[in-house]
Each structure stands twice: as C-alpha cells, then as structure tokens.
Amino acid sequence: MDNFNKKTISSGLHTKWTGKTVHFARETDSTNLWIKRLAQKGAEEGTLAVADIQNAGRGRLGRRWSAPSGTSVMMSILLRPSYAPSYAPMMTLIMGLSVGQACKALGANVSIKWPNDVVINGKKICGILTEMSAVGDKIEYAVIGTGINVNLRKFPPELVKTATSLCLELGCEFDRLKVLDVVLIAFEENYEKFLRTLDLSLIKDDYEKLLANKDRKVRVLDPLGEYEGTARGINVRGELLVELASGEICEVSAGEVSVRGIYGYV
After folding, report:
1. β-bridge mates for residue 127, sequence order
2. Global pTM?
C-alpha cells in the first residue's frame, strides 16, 4: 500500500483552502457523486473527495472512467460560487490548465487539446467532468471531477492509441500525493485569478502556451454542419477562435473539435 490515504493527503497538501477538508475512500462509486452528497449535507467550499478506485466513474458524454488500484489520481473538488451558471464552463478549462501545468512541472512535454483534454505525445492523460446544481441564476454548488493517469502501465486495446500515463511517458513511477498537491496548488492559483475578473483574461496566455490546437488546422463538428479552419487561441470566455479561409473568426463554445495529429485525426 502506498502513502495515499486521508492522513497523508490532509497533511501533505500545500494549498490555502482547497482540500482543507479531505474525504478519502479506497473505493467509491464516483468522487463527483460523493461530493454531491457531501454538498447536500452542507460541506464547505474546497472540500476534496479522493478515491483509489471508482466503480461508477464517469467522463464526458457519460463515458466510463475507471482505473486499477494504486495507479491514478481520482478526485473531486466542491465549489460554492456566487457567480451565475453561465460562467461555469470556464471551470473546466481552469482545471485543464492546472493539470497541464502540473504535468509540465513534473517533467512531461504536455499540451492541451481544447477545451480541457491534457495530452502527452498526442495521447490523453486526464479526464475532467464539471457538474453543478443551480436554482435559477444562482449556483447552489459546483463539482469539478478530475482523473489523472499516473502509474498506469497498460490500457485496454480500445484505448492504447488514445490514452497514456505519466509513468509510461516518463519511464518512472510517481508519488500520487505529489501529483495531487501540484495540481491543486496550480488550480487554486488559476481559480483565484479567474475570480478577480470572472473571465480567463489573467490566465489566457498561460493556457495558450499549452494549447495544442493553436495555429493548427482543426475540424469543428458543429450540429449545423462541419467546417475547417485554423485555431488562433481562445478568447477570455474560453471559446476557441477558429479562423476560416475567408478570414472570418468563429467563436466555438460547444461541440467536439478534432485536431490534426491528435486522436488519430489526419
């Protein structure tokens, strides 16, 4: 058994408010579901739920997210924001940037496929799912769930070409507590910058430094029709700016974006 437990996490984090209350389980259904239950019981902002194994973990579009014991960081953070629900999509980009910065600090040549897929050598290393409970124009609580492939050495055949881990890419095992700590420190700093302006203006440059899409051809899969262009970065709302052949700039806020050279799109 490694040093990944409630006691070591509680004492090993170097954050100001994120994770000051830690809940840990060797196995749970999903850390997002767990945090939601805690939120409904009045848990404070910054409450952190961490699990060694999830048996009902979910990613975007309801996709399953699971990993063997001892291999991953699976966590969810509780937020109780005062801003409107319309700002919530930016939380996911903030966490994506934070994971990217953390992986870079740990030695990985990392990039971000907009909006929040953290990739190394064209393969995904992280999954992020943001959910919230809102009443009208007020957010009751928000949950940011994050799963990071740390010491995974094998993937199912269907994921071999699209997924990787820090261990596989850098050739050594990592202390999961260290990974968790570095991610949360970065998240706290980035989120606090966001709160000053309620946009991404203070972290936009940092995000674009890691943006895999920047100045590359992209195909936008829009329900109204697919189109191609060149990604030029993001705006302060986190929308991807795509320049068409005509010179027109489209602001992409929803839908899937495929990028040449990543996930098999050529």
Report:
1. 147
2. 0.92
Q: Rounded to an integer, what distance in angstroms lies between the CA atom of residue 74 and that of residue 65? A: 10
Tokens of 77: 């953070």
Q: How far apart are CA 200 and CA 235, in angstroms?
A: 8
Which residues contact residue 185 at a Cβ distance below 8 angstroms, ignoring those fewer than 6 apart? Answer: 14, 15, 102
The structure tokens listed for 92 are: 């996911």
Say if residue 115 is preceded by a cis peptide, omega within 30 of 0.
yes
3-state secondary structure of 144: strand
Give 10-residue mean pLDDT values along the chain (266 residues): 85 96 94 96 97 70 63 96 94 97 97 94 93 93 96 89 94 96 98 98 98 92 86 96 96 79 56
Q: In whole angstroms, give the CA distance from residue 68 to residue 216.
A: 35
